[in-house]
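Tokens for chain A. Residues wanted.
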């Protein structure tokens, strides 16, 4: 029987959510807001710029920033 990892997607979702939660917590602490959706558009754009220009495109943190930004977009646009 060949090696396999059944339901690996569950682990992937867990790690993605953990990274997103860590990113959101850091952003909220940095900008002193209660929730990611409380960021201003200017703060949001500052984070987008950081993700796009400073964060390595292969960084494992990319998914966390993308999910956090998506959360803001869903509530504010």
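Reply:
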């Amino acid at each position: 029987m060949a090696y396999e990892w059944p339901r690996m997607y569950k682990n992937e979702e867990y790690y993605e959510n953990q990274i997103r939660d860590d990113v959101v917590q850091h952003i909220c602490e940095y900008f002193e807001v209660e929730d990611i959706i409380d960021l201003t558009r200017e703060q949001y754009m500052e984070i987008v710029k950081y993700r796009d220009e400073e964060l390595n495109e292969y960084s494992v943190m990319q998914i966390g920033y993308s999910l956090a930004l998506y959360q803001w977009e869903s509530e504010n646009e």
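Residues 16 and 31 are 22 Å apart (CA to CA). The chain has a mean pLDDT of 96.
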